[in-house]
Amino acid sequence: MHPLVKWTALTLAICLPLSAQAHRAWMLPSATVLSGEDPWVTVDAAVSNDLFYFEHFSMIIAGVGDVSTQPAGQRARQAAELLVMAPDGSQIKPQNGAIGRYRSTFDLHLTQKGTYKLAIANSGLFASWKEGQESKRWMGKAEDLAKQVPANAKELKVTQNNRRMEVFVTSGNPSTDVLKTTGAGLELAPITHPNDLFAGEAAEFSLLLDGKPAAGVEVSVIPGGNRYRDELGEIKTTSDAAGKISITWPHAGMYWLEAEFTTREGVSAPATERRASYSATLEVLAP
Questions:
Q1: Which of 87, 209, 226, 278 could form a disulfide with 214 if both were Cys (CB 3.0 to 4.6 A apart)?
Q2: What DSSP character marks residue 26?
Q3: Is 34 helix (H, G, I), strand (E, B) or coil?
Q4: Is the Cβ–Cβ distance between 17 and 261 less than 8 Å?
């Protein structure tokens, strides 16, 4: 795949702000709060227009399934790197992985009690420019920019991108070790535990950019099942001066939270702006 020619909806979902894209990338666990002595959870991963509905294409995850059986367009897409952290901080691998046309799926065996974190994070540069009347785009590592983008490119715009996607799953009582942030990019630092959410109650979170409070970050929260409603049902809020947000859940169900922040401060050349985004799938239970 030539990096200037074959752009997929997943690539655009990673690079573009929510307002400019139709497709959303997400992971959906079969449950987020489990009990019993031998719990398992199944996770679906996909890119779609309607949340948690399989109608566009699967998310390719490294080590999950056999991509060689997929159409050429699927095989050409770069695999996302998944990190699954157990309650004690160790890393575990997904099991029974498979890649379908519209979704990828894998299982996690929850052998420890406490909270697990599933995370996909990536960073890089996104460049756009003009060659005559034709628009060109490229995404990749900073060290490859000079090789792929003409030095005299017209209307060149280079953006530094950081993106993180997370899911939290708890077996037994919630724990907090995996809730610690990494200090890189835009992250969610829970005040309310993400597996302790109930309809009608307010939950509080802090947004951090590189480990520091991120003020003025726009946050969108969308209930799943929007395919079956006339209205999106979106909840919008903005982080305060301390990076905090508060969300009151209107009803039980799965929700998709997305936060995005664009700044020109602290940007490393050759980028002229930085775009950091965060998303999470959260389950809200009936009280």
A1: 209
A2: E
A3: strand
A4: no
Which structural domain, as residue segments, surrounds residue 155?
9-284
**pLDDT over threshold 60, residue 133:** yes
Taking phi first (over 0 means left), then psi (-120 to 50 degrees means alpha), and beta for anything else, what does residue 51 get?
A: beta
Number of residues that make up the chain: 287
| Residue 157 resides in a domain | yes
Q: What is the pLDDT of residues 214-254, one digit of tens each?
A: 999 999 999 998 888 888 899 999 999 999 999 999 999 99
Positive or negative torsion for Cα 54, 59, 62, 65: positive
Residue 19 has pLDDT above 70, yes or no: no
Please state, in angstroms and rounded to a whole number, the distance separating the CA atoms of residues 280 and 165. Answer: 6
Q: Is 2 a domain residue?
A: no
192 φ/ψ sector (left φ>0, alpha ψ -120 to 50, else beta): beta
Q: How far apart are CA 108 and CA 70, in angstroms?
A: 24
Place of tokens 């597996």: 195
- Distances, alpha carbon 239 to alpha carbons 75, 208, 216, 218, in Å: 39, 10, 5, 7
How open is the CA angle 246-249-254, to the nearest 5 degrees?
115
* Spatial separation of the C-alpha atoms in residues 216 and 177, rounded to whole Å: 27
Determine, yes or no, domain membership for 220: yes
Residue 239 domain flag = yes
In this predicted model, what pLDDT tens digit does every residue of 87-129 receive, in sequence order? Answer: 999 999 999 999 998 999 999 999 999 999 999 998 889 999 9
Assess whether pLDDT exceeds 80 at residue 282: yes
Region class of 185: left (phi > 0), else alpha (psi between -120 and 50), else beta = left
Query: Into how many domains does the chain fold?
Result: 1
Nearest to 186 by CA among 159, 213, 220: 213
Tokens 């160790």 sit on residue:
90
The answer, as to whether pTM is greater than 0.90, is no
